[in-house]
Amino acid sequence: MQQSIEQYMQHIGKQARSASQVLAFASTKTKNNALQAIHDALVAHQPQILAANKIDMERGQSNQLDAALLDRLELTHQRFQGMLDGLKDVINLKDPIGEVTDLAYRPSGIQLGKMRVPLGVVGMIYESRPNVTLEAASLALKSGNAIILRGGSEALESNKALAQAIQSALKQTELPYEAVQVIETADRAAVGELITLTDYVDVIIPRGGKGLIQRITNEARIPVIKHLDGNCHVYVEAQADMNKATPIAINAKTHRYGVCNAMETLLVDQAVADQFLPHIATLYEEKGVELRGCEKTQHILGDRVHPATEEDWYTEYLGPILAVKVVDNMNEAIVHINHYGSHHTDAIITENFSLAQEFLARVDSSSVVINASTRFADGFEYGLGAEIGISTDKIHARGPVGLEGLTSQKWIVLGHGEIRQ
Amino acid sequence: MQQSIEQYMQHIGKQARSASQVLAFASTKTKNNALQAIHDALVAHQPQILAANKIDMERGQSNQLDAALLDRLELTHQRFQGMLDGLKDVINLKDPIGEVTDLAYRPSGIQLGKMRVPLGVVGMIYESRPNVTLEAASLALKSGNAIILRGGSEALESNKALAQAIQSALKQTELPYEAVQVIETADRAAVGELITLTDYVDVIIPRGGKGLIQRITNEARIPVIKHLDGNCHVYVEAQADMNKATPIAINAKTHRYGVCNAMETLLVDQAVADQFLPHIATLYEEKGVELRGCEKTQHILGDRVHPATEEDWYTEYLGPILAVKVVDNMNEAIVHINHYGSHHTDAIITENFSLAQEFLARVDSSSVVINASTRFADGFEYGLGAEIGISTDKIHARGPVGLEGLTSQKWIVLGHGEIRQ
Q1: Is the ipTM reported for this complex over the cut 0.95?
Q2: Chain B residue closest to A244 (CA)?
Q3: Which sequence ranges form a coiled-coil region, renumbered to this chain (chains A, B) (predicted)?
């Protein structure tokens, strides 16, 4: 490359900003036509894309990447079909842009309302998963945003091939092809530039390891939509219906281990611990889940449980390990969740109405759940259509972020010549 | 002070976080009782507060502060009454906390909705205006947030006296008195600590000069709700009703000069410039407003207008100066506004429905106005009750920030034992 990384990123940023101004005013039909054109271009470019992915895979194998990373990197036939289906789904989503709400007269005579608008330019930093490239690009387009994509360097060839297919499709439409840009360098300095392009980028969405996200958040000069980890809890309260508590405790931990909405700590009220713990421990043992318990748990379960350390209460295992703590009452459970948790998703199992109300109000998490599994906390289950990330922040988007998380609202004033008195 | 600034601010932060956990679950009645207690304590402490303000005023005078700053610093009888009235207004505002919206069943059987919750702890950095101390504290309490207040050092004695009254009142209520804390040191390092207390502060709201706000934004490690400036435009379109255009153009500029929603640049369509400009120029001359025009404006108005430089299009005069530009069409007006403006408040005067629609969609400002004065863009006129600031950002709050801007929404899931399939 002749130009410096800084010049290269400035150029990409400028192009994205310029494209975003066209996108912001594009009709739903224009955006859907563009998504359909991308769909068709993917079908046409499938051989080139799979060939590029093969290069990434071979390089990854010779670089001895671990099996899980290679698995995410691979564009199988099924994943390719998934990308095409995903595009169709996004076409069918309701366009959030231009929606006017709360339009009402003020005493001064003006009509005041809110109009939903795109954020502008989204910078997305993610792992080596080529299918995310399509997901993010399609959600950005549908919500009227331009997007700059920076996937893991291991997926560079795949992402370049995908970008070529997307841009060739956009060139056939009324939308500028710079609406979707892939950063075509493996140089890590590009990320540093991207997260400080204050004039050209409106929001950064990082995905990946906690360390990476923390570094990006610290260095970004642009708002970041992020979640660091999912240390989720289920609290089995004294008045829990055990026919609900048992399947939920099993589902929340064992339905999938490597996901951010899996339970990592089980809190059990002392009133039901003697009854509940031995039974649930047997079920976890059948699933191969290792238990790490507080002293009371150890007292009840004996050597069926390992001692938990202070560190365990903070840990997102993302695997078949579960921390277990017996608590005196709901207050102790809530204080524990708000202190050790990650404000992601936390559940109570109880039949007591007033305690359920209090739990809802006091637990400071992006999703608070009564009598259901924490596993429901995702974009598809919440009906957002698709998910570009999950936010554990309180500012802007919170919880699963779909199309609406990529938008903002501006005030609109419709007058009849009114002036301020 | 024995302890370091860092220790002092950590202590304040911890107390605020702890208070916020009580506030988040406080009932509307408890919060209103606390606001009433503060009202009564202000009345009782009035002599001490006014005496403290006198110390600040005398120090300010001997330090030769400028007249405008001294004016804002002074707690006159009228301003004191205004603070009391403001408290009553906040008591009468609807409590935003706990509101549940969009609660509906999902196909899985769970009920999914959103619950409005406080942000937690607000850090407010502002000018030497003691009445803002009360405004900010009361809005924070009503919305269930703890607040840390850092007013200008010139108002330190006034703010300490106000804090004493507020905390003495809170001690009589069910709310922790640490819900409202004033930073009691003039050391500037305290601001640097406040904006990096990531564990204890959820949002920073800076007010004051553009330089200060920019510095805070750059150094903060916490989300900032801010507006930098209000470079607002009125565009008189070719099909404008002159009976609306004239009073709006006068009102937007001359109603008050030193406010962020005053017009700073007037854009006039060339189709009506010959007719409109000479007439409006006469009215501005009567008001003592200096005009700075583009070449076409100069051609029409001759020596009644000064030549505008490129810098003028970017300038928020906050005084009786107005930049004037003749544009070829609405597209040029929109491009000008989005390029030179500050995304605050911009208006079009037109009778053309389709152009009005396009202006609404394309102008990228926190308030977009049709046929009314830009001066309406504030919290009271928008019915927010009171205003803690105006945001020109797109993330989280946009436009005037009232109670709702100090809140967030979390997802709530009400189940009946559902597990994920």
Answers
A1: no
A2: B417
A3: none
